[in-house]
Amino acid sequence: MYACICAAVTTSQVEATILAGARTVSDIGERCFAGTGCGNCHRRLQRLIDETKSSAERVEKLPQSA
Ligand code: FES
After folding, report:
1. Distance CA 3, CA 44 (A)
2. Which of 3, 38, 49, 65 could form a disulfide with 11 if both were Cys (CB 3.0 to 4.6 A apart)?
């Protein structure tokens, strides 16, 4: 599924960009061009930032196995 139609960037590509360090919609645009066209996807990109960060934080808090 596309997260940004203008740049033909998928949700998975945006999530990978966030996990690689993008923290803002602007960061995502610089790294994979999502959000650099009409801007209609900016709220979707922000939601992906929020969801991906909170998922990553939950994984970091899991107890480590031996
Ligand atoms: S849909 Fe992302 S910039 Fe247009």
Report:
1. 7
2. 3
Listed by start position, the domains of the chain span 2-61
**Closest atom of ligand 1 to CA, residue 39:** 3
Distance 56 CA to ligand 1 centre (A): 25
Q: What is the pLDDT of residues 36-63, one digit of tens each?
A: 999 999 999 999 999 998 887 888 888 8
Please give the helix or strand (H or E) that residue 33 lies within, else none.
none
The pTM (predicted TM-score) of the whole model is 0.86
Cβ atoms of 7 and 34 within 8 Å: the answer is yes
Q: How far is the CA of 18 from the centre of ligand 1 (A)?
A: 17
